[in-house]
Write a structure and sequence with these properties.
By secondary structure, the chain is mainly α. The protein is about 90% helix and about 0% strand. One of its GO terms (molecular function) is proton-transporting ATP synthase activity, rotational mechanism.
């Protein structure tokens, strides 16, 4: 056998170029085509997909670690604010006679500012995680599509030799000629 396509063509299942036809049995052709495409996608895209997912996992874990560090910083700020609050409360007892209402306002402002900071940091963490997840999903989709397309083109190019290509062209020209005669 010279190559795989010559042996495949000589199996006797292919009609000659003069009697070219289409296989309209969808149940017989679609599962074969789908299994070939899925096999190629799984074979070619498995390693790349695993690497991409591992990289994205590391980036997401890094983002989570950064967010946790920000959270720890916010908790430390909260503890400092609580310490300051305790000091303010002690001073409030001492200066109750001179400015009780002003100290209460400062206390509320300090608590509100700390709560606002914590809320903003939590929102930022959630937005960052969501953004990174969406970006990871989009990158994986794009990579899988590129790999599948490259694999399919490689498979097509490796299967078509010049003799088979010219036979197919001649058969299609014959079909078009026959169709032209029928329409005339």
């Amino acid at each position: 056998m010279k190559n795989g396509t010559d042996s495949f063509l000589s199996l006797g299942h292919w009609p000659s170029a003069g009697s070219f036809g289409f296989n309209t049995d969808i149940l017989a052709t679609n599962p074969i085509n789908l299994s070939v495409v899925l096999g190629v996608l799984i074979f070619l895209g498995k390693g790349v997909l695993n690497d991409l997912l591992d990289n994205r996992k590391q980036r997401i874990l890094s983002t989570i670690r950064n967010s946790e560090e920000l959270r720890r910083g916010a908790i430390e700020q909260l503890e400092r604010a609580r310490t300051r609050l305790r000091k303010v409360e002690i001073e409030a007892d001492e200066y109750r006679m001179n400015g009780y209402s002003e100290i209460e306002r400062e206390k509320e402002n300090l608590i509100n500012a700390t709560c606002d900071t914590l809320e903003r940091l939590e929102n930022y963490k959630n937005e960052t995680l969501h953004f990174e997840q969406q970006r990871a999903i989009n990158q994986v989709r794009q990579r899988v599509f590129q790999q599948a397309l490259q694999g399919a083109l490689g498979t097509l190019n490796s299967c078509l030799n010049s003799e088979l290509h010219f036979r197919t062209i001649r058969a299609n020209i014959g079909i078009l000629g026959a169709m032209e005669e029928i329409t005339d």
